[in-house]
Amino acid sequence: MSDRKQPIYRDPWAKREAWRKHPVFDRRTQIRNMFPGFGIALIAFSGYVAWDNLSSPNSSTIHDLKKHSEDQIKQKDNLLGWVTGQDDKKADHK
Q1: What's the whole-model pTM score?
Q2: Is the residue at 54 inside a domain?
């Protein structure tokens, strides 16, 4: 015989209901396995955010880029006004 003891079922239906008590169907196991891959995804996303923050330009560079962008927009508006002739109308109203 085998060394492993088989459970003795006194209730005739207990053997058929035993699968419900298996650890796979435990509530804790079901909740833990509800989102497979979530832990790995969380670690990967955290690493991405950390790398992005470390490799991004600092705030003074961002300020310089914004100022440069505003200057380019002003130049574009001036050029567009000169080409369309609206620049003269603005000068007349002032």
Answers
A1: 0.39
A2: no
